[in-house]
Design goal:
Distance between the termini: 38 Å
Shape: flat
Order of helices and strands: EEEEHHHHHHHEE
Strand order of the largest sheet: 1-2
Largest sheet: 2 strands, antiparallel
Strand content: 15-25%
Structural class: alpha+beta
Length: 232
Amino acid sequence: GRVLLLGRKALEPGEEGLAQLLLEEETAALVDDRFVIRRYSPQSTLGGGQVLDPVAIRYTLLSVHYRAQLNFSFDGIEASAQAVRRLRDLYRRLEQAHLHQGPGSGGRAEVATELCRADFTAALEDDLNLAGALGRLFLWVREANSLLDEAVLSVAEAQTMELWLKEVDSVLDVLKEDCDENAEACVARLVEERVKAKAAKDFAAADRLRAEIEALGWVVKDTAAGPVFHRR
C-alpha cells in the first residue's frame, strides 16, 4: 500500500497531518480505530494514526477559507465531528416534530430562518466565506433547538426549518449517514454518538439516538464493558 499526505509533502518526527491510505486489499475499519504503518524491507515502523470520520474531515476542510492553509489537529477534527452531530441531531428533532402539533412560535421560527438564509447566502457570496456562513448557521441551530425545547413549533414551522436545513446540506453534504448502504456501520456510528451524548450528560439526545437505532431494527444495551448492539 501507499500513504498519500494531504496538504503536506512530508511529516517530520512528532508531527501530525491528514493522510489517505491506499491499500492493496479492502479492509474493515471503524472511526477512531488506531493503526501502525510499518515497512517490511527493511523492517521499520514509519508511524501510526487514527481512522477519522470522512464527514468530519469534509466539514473541517469546508470551514477553512480556500485561500488559507489548514492547520491540522485532532482537536479540530473532533470539533468538526461535534458540529456535524449537532446538525444531524437537529435534523432528527425536526423530523420528529412533524408528529407533534405545537401552538406555533408566533413568527419566531420564520424570522430566524429567513434571517439565517439571508446571512448565510451573503457570506457565501462574499468570496465564499464558509466560515462566516457556518458561524451564522449555528446561531440559527441554537434558536431552532430552543424552539424545539419549548415544544411550540407547529408542523408547518418544523417543515420550513427542516427544508432550510436540507438546503444548507446541499452545500455541506453532511446529514446523510448511508444507513441503507451499510446498516451495521451506521448503527455503530449512532451507538458511538449516543456514548458521547451520555458522557456530555445530554440525555435527551441519547434517548433520541436510542430511538433511532431501534427504528432501524437494532437493539442497544448498556453493559459494564460498554454498549453492545444487535439486530432485533
